[in-house]
Specification:
30% of the residues lie in helices and 22% in strands. It is α/β, with parallel strands linked by helices.
């Protein structure tokens, strides 16, 4: 394995998906004097929206809030398909000249911080070679799930099945399913997307779920957005609809959390109006948890329910006993015949894209660290990560995180400082799991992630308006985020990175 010579940038962005491209654009607009590069492990930009190519892949958030704050979404479809989102990201990168800074096929494996030099040394794998770079600031825009491996339960009898088994994260582009019988295992957003898309040409699609999830039908197009685009400049129309949708999302979430039984009843009533007559609504569409314990699944224009009414799709709620030669056998004895089985069984999470990190020679143990304002880690200098909202669009928090990083960079430039690090004073806060969702993919991996704290600024808020006030207007120097010249870490941060932090109990 050969090692190439290193080079230096002011800001190194890890990942060139929706978040990474947005981060680069924010840097160019707010910190035009800073050099930067993006390292992308795959051979194309777009992240999630380039990786996932299964039938019907689309957003589960409206594009007025999933889109960038600085670039209007102008398509009529607001619940957009994957190719449209991929084009939106690519057009943004081209229009802002970001592609000149992207290095494809560079998978970051390690990052080492030196306080003496006030810089990161980042190691990446590129075509079997080890590439090193240095950077004054490191920004992870790599999401929080594994790109190379989806979650696959160990189903009994899987090897006996004579048909084709495919996971949506690794969809073969030559898979023909027209006229075939398809079984989709799962009940999350991916399954709810796949079923109506495949039902258009498949002989039949059976969705097999262990337990139901909450399904909400929303219009695929927004009439208000269409009217406003005819009367207002593109950005003005975009921002008006964006704030309308932010308000509706926040109101819906708060009502669901404050009045879960009433909210569940309203959702159930809406579902009952859309499913075929005689459907056992409580068996197939009444979850065992409250709304927003897990994300709600969106059905644009009720496409999932339409497939059920047309008879091209069906829902089966039961545990899977085993695969058979010709399909699936359920615990209750029902046999599901299938030529193709799609295991829409979820994701595997991965913090910081799997990067190994050290600070001044000490290996970083992520579960021992608290998140500062949901974007930095205590005792880890000159580094931030993008973690989107669980109850709203990912990009809303991405935009705010990138703006805050730019504030930090400009503050350090204006005050002659080279290090910025949040400091968690011992005994001041109690740790808690980073994410509050009860989804299986979250619960399986939470003990590998940093924690949030019990009090601000360590508490991870899922509240966009409050985060606007905190990240755009509150002073940077809050007594927690501290600045220093090269060669030293301020305050308690020095102790935090030179001795193991107290162990944090794993999430239940």
């Amino acid at each position: 394995m050969r090692t190439t010579a290193s080079d230096h940038v002011d800001v190194l962005i890890v990942g060139a998906g929706l978040s990474g491209i947005g981060a680069a654009c924010h840097l160019q607009r707010r910190c035009p004097d800073r050099s930067y590069a993006l390292l992308e492990g795959r051979e194309a930009i777009g992240g999630t929206w380039d990786l996932f190519r299964y039938p019907g892949v689309r957003s589960d958030s409206d594009m007025h809030t999933l889109g960038y704050s600085f670039r209007p979404w102008t398509d009529d479809r607001v619940i957009a398909d994957g190719p449209s989102i991929r084009r939106y990201i690519a057009d943004t990168a081209e229009d802002h000249g970001v592609m000149d800074h992207v290095r494809l096929g560079h998978r970051v494996t390690r990052a080492d911080w030196s306080s003496e030099d006030a810089r990161w040394t980042v190691t990446a794998d590129h075509d079997g070679e080890t590439v090193t770079m240095t950077a004054s600031f490191l920004l992870w825009c790599s999401g929080y799930y594994r790109y190379d491996q989806g979650y696959e339960p160990d189903f009994a009898g899987r090897d006996r099945f004579r048909g084709t088994i495919v996971h949506p994260q690794h969809w073969p582009q030559d898979l023909g399913y027209a006229g075939k019988r398809v079984a989709v295992i799962g009940s999350g957003a991916t399954a709810i997307t796949l079923v109506p898309a495949m039902a258009e040409t498949a002989a039949h699609v059976a969705m097999v779920q262990r337990s139901p999830t909450y399904l909400v039908s929303l219009p695929g197009e927004d009439p208000l957005a269409t009217r406003l685009r005819r009367r207002l400049p593109a950005m003005a129309a975009y921002q008006a609809v964006r704030w309308k949708n932010v308000g509706m999302q926040a109101l819906s979430y708060r009502l669901c959390r404050r009045f879960p039984r009433a909210s569940a009843a309203i959702i159930r009533k809406a579902v009952a109006r859309q499913v075929p007559a005689g459907t056992d609504v409580d068996r197939h569409f009444r979850p065992r948890y409250d709304p927003w314990d897990q994300r709600l699944c969106v059905c644009p224009d009720g496409d999932f329910f339409r497939a059920l009414r047309d008879g091209t799709a069906s829902v089966h709620t039961d545990a899977i006993e085993s695969f058979t030669e010709t399909g699936l056998r359920l615990a209750g004895g029902e046999e599901i015949e299938a030529d193709i089985v799609v295991t829409a069984t979820g994701l595997n999470l991965l913090a910081l894209g799997g990067t190994e990190v050290s600070v001044d020679g000490r290996e970083l143990n992520l579960p021992e660290r608290l998140t500062y304002k949901g974007l930095m880690l205590d005792g880890v200098p000159n580094a931030a990560m993008v973690i989107g909202y669980t109850n709203a669009s990912w990009t809303l928090k991405c935009d705010l995180t990138c703006e805050y990083v730019c504030r930090i960079l400009n503050h350090m430039r204006d005050h002659g400082q080279e290090i910025a690090v949040p400091v968690a004073e011992p005994g001041t806060v109690s740790p808690a799991p980073l994410l509050d969702l009860q989804s299986g993919y979250v619960q399986r991996s939470l003990d590998e992630f940093p924690r949030q704290g019990s009090e601000p600024p360590w508490k991870l808020r899922q509240n966009y308006p409050r985060d606007i006030l905190t990240l755009r207007t509150k002073p940077l120097q809050d007594g927690v985020l501290r600045f220093a010249p090269a060669g030293q870490l301020p305050g308690a941060a020095s102790a935090a990175v030179t001795a193991p932090a107290p162990a944090v109990p794993a999430a239940a």
